[in-house]
Amino acid sequence: MKVLAIIPARGGSKGVPGKNIKLLGGKPLIAHAIECAQNSNKVSKVIVTTDSEEIIEIAQKYNSEVIKRPSDLADDKSNVVSAVVHVLEQLNMEYDLIILLQPTSPLRTSSDLDAIVSIFETENIDGVISVVPFDDYHPARMYNLGDDLTLTPFINEGETSRRQDLNPVYYRNGCFYAVKKEVFQREKSFMVKNKKAYVMDANWLVNIDSHRDFKIAELLYDEWKNENNNY
To answer: Strand 45-50 vs strand 3-8: parallel, antiparallel, or unpaired?
Structure first.
């Protein structure tokens, strides 16, 4: 299969200014995504899509090809799907599979990426999304809040159940979104209908949208790297 890895990295960020180039483990956040794709045995091409000259410079330093994104595809209201469509329009080569690697979920390995591609090679599936089991924030522990602060259970079952008795739920961890190119172009989404999960270790859940998230990433990084020495 011809596999295209796309790394979306806008220059603007309100939650953590400059987060895509903020250092984690001595490397810019975006470099972790680039190296994950470059170290894969199954990725054919790596593309960074960005509007930022500073990100372009860093991506090129890490030997990644860059496609500059128009400013109207890089504001707060922009959808990543539009950025990926723009990348595909700029490329002449055909691809079978698109894998989106968000810089904000850096604790992943090229082995994970290769395992996801292998799913497409052996199964009749259109999309694969990476997830982690989510026990601590189960929907059975969530509520809708009335105007008078009354609590209404978010789901009808499990409010009084022990955590270990609840049916497991899974949370998208942001590490990998993989989809067949033809299906992406037809459905205009990474959340395609015929998809399955790639389950990852919840101990390394990091999705950086705030300063708190980045602090958690810094605390976890060294231990994660030691455990994943093939990284």
So the answer is: parallel
Q: Which long-range contacts (CB under 8 A, 24 or more apart) does 219-223 make?
A: 220/107, 221/24, 221/25, 221/106, 221/107, 222/25
14 burial level (CB within 10 Å; 0-12, 13-18, 19+): exposed
Single out the residue in 168, 188, 215 at which a domain terminates: 168
Q: Are residues 86 and 50 in the same domain?
A: yes
What is the pTM (predicted TM-score) of this model? 0.91
Q: pLDDT tens-digit profile of 55-71?
A: 999 999 999 999 998 87
Beta-carbon contacts of 109 under 8 Å, excluding residues fewer than 6 positions away, are: 36, 228, 230, 231
Q: Tell me: the pLDDT tens digits for 77-104?
A: 778 899 999 999 999 789 999 999 999 9
Q: Which amino acid is at 79?
A: N
